[in-house]
Design goal:
The complex is a heterodimer of chains A (187) and B (302).
Chain A: H1 24-40, H2 46-62, H3 72-96, H4 100-103, H5 114-117, H6 121-133, H7 136-146, H8 152-159, H9 163-186
Chain B: H1 7-19, H2 26-38, H3 41-55, H4 67-71, E1 97-98, E2 105-108, E3 114-118, E4 123-128, E5 133-146, E6 153-157, E7 160-164, E8 167-174, E9 177-182, E10 187-191, E11 194-198, E12 202-207, E13 210-217, H5 220-223, E14 230-237, H6 238-248, E15 252-255, H7 258-262, E16 264-270, H8 277-285, E17 287-292, E18 296-301
Parallel strand pairs in B: 5-6, 15-18
Antiparallel strand pairs in B: 1-4, 2-3, 3-5, 4-5, 5-8, 6-7, 7-10, 8-9, 9-12, 10-11, 12-13, 14-16, 17-18
Helix pairs in contact in B: 1-3
The chains are: A mainly alpha (187), B alpha+beta (302).
């Protein structure tokens, strides 16, 4: 049952017209199989590739602010690519730990419950606010690593700082984000 | 403020940043493993940081002015979003039987006069412990019927073993939880040293930590109606209905909004026509159902 323009503008009530508005359904039809190919080329299992592509689209629905629709394609590929990198990093990190399923008992489950991993729109909104309020030095390092996928050496070169400083700022940025999220949750 | 209030979070941030770009040394890896093993709070804090990292992957940093207006929708669109999960799927490449999504399959059991009906998306292997024959259920659900004359028969699922001396019963293993239902005869359920007796007409559930729901009476015919190609829901929350439907059809069903997830649903689903179910929900519940191809269906309040 396709209702092509349901998400066009997400018009719940006429008074609230979100900016910008993406036609998620159309994007799905246009990019779903291409993204799947793109992700599968990274030597991922079919299941995992499917999951990552679905998650990419779910993020569009939950993310509080999206760029203009002209950037939709690059946004989709970037998000899928980030999810793939995150997935491989997880596997790599788990490989250092003896008996990772026990150590990460809650997390290494076959099918983690949505509560364990779900991001609500409110939470994403909170996270975005916190990122915007990070001190500039920390935020730029975080964004270069997160969005551009740069290493500390590359970040150091780009910002003209030693890579060790880039690393320290990243540690600090992650800690500050965590603390701010914890505080926001308590409220 | 130079240090965080929570030293464990600070350590977790250090480790995550260190392991981020793959340039860590072998020594770092060993130290990380030691840190993880030191205290269960450590892997948890690490996973928290990783979750924040994952959550930030889709945020847009190019514009910061759009938040306000779009955020007004937050309440009604509490979308869940599945971030990548830790660990990989287990595939059980050597399993004997696996059913496709939507498939029901009747099989015979080696060494037993009897049969089993295996539900959609299930994986099982035939096993033996030297004395008895049995089945290991890796995931999914199966109903068993066997004659006691051939000796006892067991179904191993995760950390527990359900033992039957003849009759019919059902075992389901989903999301780390195993539920056994005794239909015509009592069962013995062994979980990590503890032995439980389950009389006919009752069900019990266990998980990695032990019994999560002790024996309680169930409507066996409704619970096992899937064998005849039906799913019966009596006042079940919509979220549970979606979880069950996801086992029988491909793709994810995403329900937007906590209230909607809890809305009770009474419904009989014909499994041979389950593809039509979700659209039917739209009328019955007065909700909006959008199907983005076979992979993703979104249900939200009108």
């Amino acid at each position: 049952m396709l209702r092509p323009h349901l998400y066009a503008g997400l018009q719940i009530s006429p008074k609230v017209r979100p900016v910008p508005h993406w036609d998620v359904n159309k994007l799905f039809r246009t990019y779903h199989s291409r993204l799947l190919q793109f992700v599968r080329r990274r030597k991922l299992s079919w299941h995992m590739a499917d999951d990552i592509v679905q998650d990419t689209f779910l993020r569009i629905i939950a993310t509080p602010s999206l760029p203009e629709q002209d950037f939709a394609k690059s946004y989709l590929y970037r998000t899928a690519n980030n999810l793939v990198i995150d997935h491989f990093r997880r596997e790599r990190i788990l490989s250092f730990v003896p008996d990772p399923e026990k150590a990460f008992e809650m997390l290494a489950d076959d099918t983690p419950s949505p509560e364990q991993i779900a991001w609500s729109r409110q939470e994403l909104k909170r996270l975005q606010k916190i990122l915007q309020k990070l001190p500039k030095h920390h935020r730029e390092v975080f964004i270069l690593a997160r969005i551009e996928g740069l290493t500390y050496v590359q970040i150091g070169e780009q910002l003209g700082i030693p890579s060790q400083t880039a690393f320290s700022r990243m540690v600090r940025a992650l800690g500050l984000i965590k603390e701010a999220m914890d505080q926001a949750e308590k409220k | 403020m130079n240090s965080l209030r929570d030293p464990v979070s600070e350590q977790a941030a250090y480790w995550f940043a260190l392991l981020l770009d793959g340039s860590e040394s072998e020594e770092d890896r060993q130290k990380f493993a030691e840190w993880v093993a030191q205290d269960p709070a450590h892997p948890k804090a690490f996973a928290d940081i990783e979750r924040l990292w994952s959550g930030s992957s889709s945020l847009d940093f190019t514009s910061s002015t759009h938040i306000g207006r779009r955020a007004m929708l937050g309440g009604s669109l509490a979308a869940i979003l599945l971030a990548g999960c830790w660990g990989a799927y287990r595939y059980h490449p050597l399993a004997d039987i696996r059913t496709q999504t939507g498939q029901r399959r009747e099989i015979s059991i080696p060494g037993q006069r009897g049969r089993s009906i295996v539900a959609s998306n299930s994986i099982l292997s035939f096993v033996s412990d030297g004395r008895m024959t049995g089945v290991e259920l890796h995931q999914g659900e199966a109903w068993f019927e066997h004659e006691g004359d051939d000796g006892a028969f067991f179904v191993q699922a995760q950390n527990g073993r359900t033992l039957s001396t003849g009759g019919t019963f059902d075992v389901a293993a989903y999301d780390g939880k195993v539920t056994a239902i005794a239909e015509t005869n009592p069962l013995i359920v062994d979980i990590a040293g503890g032995r439980h007796t389950l009389t006919e007409g009752n069900a019990m559930t266990y998980d990695a930590t032990g019994v999560s729901r002790s024996a309680h009476p169930v409507d066996v015919q409704s619970a096992l109606a899937w064998r005849q190609g039906q799913l019966i829901f009596m006042g079940e929350p919509l979220a549970n209905v979606a979880t069950v439907l996801e086992r029988w059809q491909s793709g994810k069903i995403v329900i937007m909004g906590e209230t909607l997830k809890r809305r009770p649903v009474t419904l009989v689903v014909d499994l041979d026509r389950s593809r039509d179910v979700v659209p039917v929900l739209a009328d019955v519940l007065h909700v909006d159902v959008t199907r983005f191809t076979d992979y993703l269906t979104v249900i939200r309040d009108v």
